Leucine-rich repeat-containing protein 4
Amino acid sequence: MEIVPVTTKRYFGLKVCERLLLNKGGMKMLFFSAEVFFFLNLAFGNNRNDEACRKCSCFTYYHGYSVNCSNRWLHSVPDGIPPNVTKLNLSRNYLSALSEDLFMRLRNLVVLDLSVNSITNISKGCFAYNVRLKKLDISENQLTDLPSGLLFNNHDLKTILFKKNSLRNIPETIFANIPNLTHVDISHDNCLQELPPGLLFNNHYLITM
């Protein structure tokens, strides 16, 4: 029995050698190298990305990749959210705190919905790696304060929703690095007596607040 290399092709970006298995009777059988089986197991087998998609709905849409974990009785963000996700919905759960590195792997994130949870604390660097973020919804939580550098790296943000919290103050520079901000909502049930005078100094494109 002899194994003869025939051609080299690419499948899903993987270089794969096609080989012919030749036996004495002249029968030819095509088979692929173990690289293919490794890839198939990685793509369709039990990997970490399955953990999030078993609890949530994962699907491709015309703007990218969406993970919908809304109303799943979650007390923490599920492990294994695909790093290519562009829209993540974690609304209507029981999240209480957002740690500094929570969304570090999700660098393509454009829309993040954290509304209607029980969030009382957000770490300063929570969104530091989500530089493509355009919409952030943290409305209907239990926030009383916001870290001053919370949105320092989120220059592309256009919509920020903080309504229906218990905010006592907002840092004056929280929107300073978001020049294209068009919509901010801090209405309903917040405990704000007044806004800092320089809060919207750099937000020339703001339409509604």
Notes: The mean pLDDT is 77.
